[in-house]
Amino acid sequence: MRTAVRAGLLEFNFTFVPATEFIPLVFAARDPEGNLVGGLAGEVMPGWKWLVISLLWVSSSHRHERIGTRLMHQVEDEARRRGCAYAYTSTFQALGFYEKLGYVVWGVQEDFPPGQRRFFVSKPLGRGIGQE
Question: Rounded CA gap, 131 and 3, in Å?
Fold first, then answer.
């Protein structure tokens, strides 16, 4: 059902904006034994020149090892390679992390989750392939 609803919404939206692909990207970080210690999931929309980061996680036992930073650089580099010029995500607990990577707050949602503030952040990625 979710797939059908998304397809219907995209069909409608594409009557107002240029159609684009939604290409999923997933990156994993593993320790020397091959155990998953972090990961990032998002998607690029090359026709709109945007990268959307949906999920970023680093195991608490591996925090402060720059794993999150490396994952972010990997996905941003791949997005640039695919022609994206901008990146977007949201967070309620890692604002400082994203700000260190150059992301800027453009919106705040109060009480999401309750007692917290969700920050919407974005940044320019620079020139992607094929951009003038």
Answer: 31
Tell which CATH classification among 3.40.630.30, 3.20.20.140, 3.20.20.150, 3.30.70.20 matches the domain 2-124. Answer: 3.40.630.30
Q: Which residue has the higher pLDDT, 18 or 98?
A: 98
97 contact partners, CB below 8 Å, separation of at least 6 = 68, 91
Integer CA distances (angstroms), 78 to 7, 40, 94, 107, in order? 25, 13, 22, 26
Local structure of residue 16 (DSSP, 8 states): T
In this prediction the pTM is: 0.90
Pair of tokens at residue 66: 């720059």
> Which residues, listed in sequence order, are joined to residue 25 by a DSSP beta bridge?
42
Tracing tokens 């939604």 back to the chain, one arrives at 22
Pairing relation of β-strands 86-91 and 117-124? antiparallel
Confidence of residue 129 (pLDDT cuts 50, 70, 90): very low
Q: Which amino acid is at 54?
A: S
Q: How far apart are CA 38 and CA 126, in angstroms?
A: 26
